[in-house]
Amino acid sequence: MYDHPECSQADGCPSMPAGIPCTLPSRDWGDACGVFGIFAPRQDVARITYFGLYALQHRGQESAGIAVWHPREEMQHHKGMGLCFQVFTEEILRNLQGDCAIGHVRYSTMGASHIYNAQPMLGQGRFGQFAIAHNGNIVNAHQLHEQLQAQGAEMAGTSDTAVMVELLSRSSADTLEEAIAEMMGIIKGAYSLVFLAANKIIAVRDAHGVRPLCIGRLNGDHWVIASETCALHTIGADFVREVEPGEMIVIDKDGLSATEVLKPTRKACCIFEFIYFARPDSHIYGRSVYMTRQRMGNLLAQQAPVEADLVIPVPESGIPHAMGYAQVAKIPYGEGFIKNRYIHRTFIAPDQRMRELGVKMKLAPLKEAVRGKRIVVVDDSIVRGTTTGPEISLLRDAGAREIHLRINCPPIKWGCFYGVDTSAGRDELIAARMSVEEIRQQLGADTLEYLDMKNLIAAVGLPKNNFCTACFDNQYPIPVPKELKEAKVSITPPKSPKEQKQPTPS
Ligand code: SF4
Question: Of residues 7, 13, 22, 33, which has the active-site annotation?
């Protein structure tokens, strides 16, 4: 479990008023954002975007926002801290009228979790006003930020997205498309981006396609862009295809056009999307995330069998993995924990005792199900290991006789610099500091086995060179600057970040 990093700042959490404890959820590994875009004249695009963001809420819970291009050629937007339902009201959605819109849910990996980093962010270039929403991480953002500051730039926030806004705003290109193409030649890293401008939306993906991005069609003549296919299904759109690595998609009144901006190099989709991040009902590379997770469980049961009475998941992300394990192991599958579904924000202080209380608030053991039994506990991954130990203690206290921990990916030994929150430092990753046997002892399990890389790749069913697997094997497909790897850089928060105007209720 990993508490909101800004809480340790001397002046408190910047997301909360002075003197109020942090209410951001304690977290383990979070993904960095979900993006959504729609071009649908005369439709309620803000409300459809809201539904799309709701489907992508698992990708970010810190802030949410929607920008709409109004028929009177004005950009309107609203964003705020919290979950979609906390940020938007019926009145706000009613006032966001237009023909096209983009939306964003955020989980911070670069830049504080603060309203000034909430997205979509707005910018103004030679070509007019635009809004941007980003999923990923720009690894040379700090260098670009320094260069822009030296030119006197006043940034709209402290994230890599603010750097992109500044680059586009300063571009001498005549069109937003040209400015974006120019920027794609400068920025390095992982990015799936959607843009809103005068009567059009634009989507681009980095040359490796690290973060997912797909295209859908709604009611025949309307177009949708989303981080995951689950958002298309939620709004009734049909999946058309994924945005290709290095590609730019422009959608306007003339329909959809596609351009190859960057030559795709080797594909490097984040394999963790299959293990944990993506919603199980999504498809990536044409593969069902849910069925892939079941296959991981199948192969882990072959690789690391054990005699036991019951297979249980750590809910909810461990469910398909555990079902897959139980199928092949021929051990009954059941629930061993009940998850409190209403934990979104908890008043948890960053010390170990409170973290343990936090686990108890989230999970309760089913004593009658586990008492006296040999239990296989299946989870998708172990990152810091700070939640797994208390989970095992809960089962022991509930009377489990043996606890065999099975993890559906290899040990995570390296940080992610492509849009997943491990930036606080490699030493926080338990497998970077300890052997598997030491981890087993630390967590208090009777046995511990991880799915090996060969079986992970077999489960996803494509050659390894289609994926980024850097957090397991240190093979980073996009070079990471040394200073970023050593976590020595950050973008300094602006003293008075530029205000992003809220829509005026009519
Ligand atoms: Fe995904 Fe790990 Fe690569 Fe990050 S380092 S993109 S989490 S596979």
Answer: 33
